[in-house]
Amino acid sequence: MSGQANIRVSYLPRQELLLHPEAWWQGVLGVVPFGQDPDFPAPPAIPIAPVGLPELGTGHCTCEVWRASEPLRSGHSGAVHYRAGAQVLFGRLVLAESAPVKSGPEGPAVLQQATAQAYAQIFAALDGLGYPHLLRIWNYFAEINRAASQGERYHEFNTARRQAFLRARRVIEGQVPAACALGSASGSPLVIYFLASATAARSLENPRQVSAFRYPAEYGPDSPTFSRAVLAAPMSGNCLLTSGTASILGHSTVHAGNAAAQIRESISNVTELVAEANRVSGARRFSIEELQYKVYVRHTTDLDEIRRELALLLPASCPVTYLQADICRRDLLVEIEAVGSAAPDASADSR
C-alpha cells in the first residue's frame, strides 16, 4: 500500500456539518457527535459514534470529525461500521449491555460479556480487513465507578479487555494502543470507536508514570491494556495520539480534591509525552501549543476553574472541547486527551 493517510481531527459545530455538500464528506472517516442528542444525519457511508456525553461551556452540539487525504471506502463487519483508506481505518461499535445471552450475575458480568463481544468483533474486523494495528481506542460505558464484584465496573471492563487481547493473540504490554475509558449516564450502551492502521505504530510511555499495563493490584485484578500515547507511522498520517491523561505520578493520583492542580498535573504529563514523541522521532515534530484537546470534567461546578487554569497553560488558539463524564478513578476530577499532526517540514521518520 502506498500514499500517506494524513489523518486529522476537527471539532466542528453540528450546524456547520449540516451545511457541507456531498463532495466534502468523501474525505471523512467518521464522526463523533457529543451532547444529549448524539444522533447525526450524516451520509450512510459515514460511521457515527454516538457518544452522549453532555458538552460543557457552549450553546451548540460539537462533533469530532476524523478525515484522511486518501480515497475511502465503507462497510460493515459484524457490528463494526468502518470507513477506511489504504492505510487507516476508523470504526465504531455500539452494544447494549443486555445484548449478550450467556448466563451470569447481573451488573458487572453483563458488562464483561458486552466488552468481550465488542472487542472480539473489533479484532476480527481488523484482521479480516488488513488493518491489524490498533492506534487509538475510545471506550464509553455507563456508571464506570459503580461498585462491582471486582471493585468497580471499570475493573470488570479491564479484565474483559485484557482477556480479549489475549484471545486475539495481541500483546498486553509494550506495543499496545492508546486508549481511554469514560463513564456515561446510567442505561447508556457500550460505545467504542477506534483508529487502526495497516502499518505498525510506536507506543510511548511517560517517564513520570508507571505504565498502566504494570499497575499494582490495588487498581484492580487486571491492569488496563493501553499505552500512554501512540506515534503513528508516516504512512498512517504521522500524528501523535495521547491516551486519557490525568493527575497521576508513578501510579498514584495526586492533588485529590483540587481540580485546578489536577489539570496542571495533567498538562505536565501531556508535555512529557510530547517530549517523548519528539525524542523518539529525532526531531521537534510536535508541540503542546499545536495539539487539539478534549477535556473530561467529573463535576460541572469545576468547569470554570479548569478553564481558567488551561487558559494559563495553553494559547487561546488551541481547540478545547469540554465534556461531562465520570473518570476511571473516583479521586480524579478531570482527564485530558490530545492529538496533533507532525510539523510539515519534519524530515525524521519515527523509529
Description of the molecule:
The chain is of the alpha+beta class and 351 residues long. It has a domain of 233 residues: 60s Ribosomal Protein L30, Chain: A (2-Layer Sandwich), CATH 3.30.1330.40. It has five helices and 20 strands. Strands 3-19-18-20-15-14-13 form a seven-stranded mixed sheet, covered by helices on one side. The radius of gyration is 19 Å and the shape is globular. The two termini are 19 Å apart. The C terminus is likely disordered.
Task: Please summarize what this structure is.
This protein has helices at residues 14-18, 108-129, 153-167, 259-281, 303-313; strands at 8-13, 28-33, 55-56, 62-67, 73-77, 80-84, 88-95, 133-142, 147-148, 151-152, 178-184, 190-197, 202-204, 229-231, 239-242, 248-249, 252-253, 292-297, 320-324, 334-341. It is an alpha+beta fold and 351 residues long.
Q: CATH homologous superfamily of one domain, by name? A: RutC-like
Tell me the β content. Answer: 25-35%
Give the proportion of residues in helices.
10-25%
- Level-1 CATH class name of one domain: Alpha Beta
Mass-distribution shape: globular
Q: Which sheet architecture does the biggest sheet show? A: 7 strands, mixed
Determine the number of helices (DSSP H or I, runs of at least 4 residues).
5
User: Numbering strands along the chain, what is their spatial order in the largest sheet?
Assistant: 3-19-18-20-15-14-13
CATH topology of one domain: 60s Ribosomal Protein L30, Chain: A
- Give the distance, in angstroms, between the N- and C-terminal Cα atoms: 19 Å
